[in-house]
């Protein structure tokens, strides 16, 4: 199993603006300018929080964009308005530890899902795209507990206006 965070942040480290809005990202470029399609083909399972789901649920044909993966949304809701997304409750760490060990898991967002996994050293890779935007405030990518977590840089790519940094966890 490989647990991977793949997402885009502002240059000052925010996933979304202070209102959980992603307009700044959509105005910066598109997934077509990145390796998203290649990345997604390697994914078996996606996991996201409710706010991330709310930010993407109204994208045209969203179900078709996540058609080949099993998609989980951490929420207190019993059902979701978009087919192909499964609501789940509970502890994200226990949930991930209970998944098939042969699966690649994409942590779509946000920091409330990512932080507990980082705290338990469960994130194997970070693929972070950086958009040429400064938000000044917003929802930060990293909110994990204090403690050293080491990654090494595997690769740096440029896709149009985006820089992509690929990191792999160093096992200590």
Break the fold down into its secondary structure elements and pairings:
Blueprint: E1 2-10, E2 14-16, H1 23-26, H2 36-41, E3 45-49, H3 50-56, H4 62-65, E4 70-74, E5 85-88, H5 92-97, E6 104-109, H6 111-119, E7 125-131, E8 139-140, E9 151-159, E10 162-169
Parallel strand pairs: 1-6, 1-7, 3-4, 3-6, 4-5
Antiparallel strand pairs: 2-8, 7-10, 9-10
3D architecture notes:
The structure is a single chain. With 172 residues, the chain is an alpha/beta fold. It has one domain: Dihydrofolate Reductase, subunit A (3-Layer(aba) Sandwich), CATH 3.40.430.10. Helices cover 21% and strands 34% of the residues. The chain is built from 6 helices and 10 strands, in the order ββααβααββαβαββββ. The strands form 2 sheets. An 8-stranded mixed β-sheet has the order 5-4-3-6-1-7-10-9. It starts with a strand and ends with a strand.
Concise structural overview:
By secondary structure, the chain is α/β, with parallel strands linked by helices. It contains six helices and ten strands.
- Give the number of helices: 6
Q: How many whole angstroms does the radius of gyration measure? A: 15 Å
Mean pLDDT over the residues: 92
Second rung of CATH, namely the architecture: 3-Layer(aba) Sandwich
């Amino acid at each position: 199993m490989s647990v991977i965070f793949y997402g885009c942040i502002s240059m000052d480290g925010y996933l979304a603006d202070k209102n959980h809005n992603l307009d700044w990202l959509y105005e910066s470029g598109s997934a077509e300018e990145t390796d998203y399609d290649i990345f997604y083909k390697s994914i078996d399972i996606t996991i996201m929080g409710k706010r991330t789901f709310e930010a993407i649920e109204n994208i045209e044909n969203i179900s078709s964009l996540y058609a080949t993966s099993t998609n989980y949304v951490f929420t207190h809701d019993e059902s979701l308005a978009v087919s192909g997304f499964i609501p789940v409750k509970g502890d994200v760490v226990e949930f991930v530890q209970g998944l098939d060990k042969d699966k690649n898991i994409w942590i779509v967002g946000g920091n409330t899902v990512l932080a507990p996994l980082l705290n338990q050293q469960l994130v194997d890779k970070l693929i972070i795209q950086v958009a040429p935007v400064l938000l000044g405030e917003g929802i930060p990518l990293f909110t994990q507990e204090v403690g050293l977590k080491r990654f090494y840089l595997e690769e740096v790519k440029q896709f149009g206006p985006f820089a992509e940094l690929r990191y792999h966890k160093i096992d200590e």
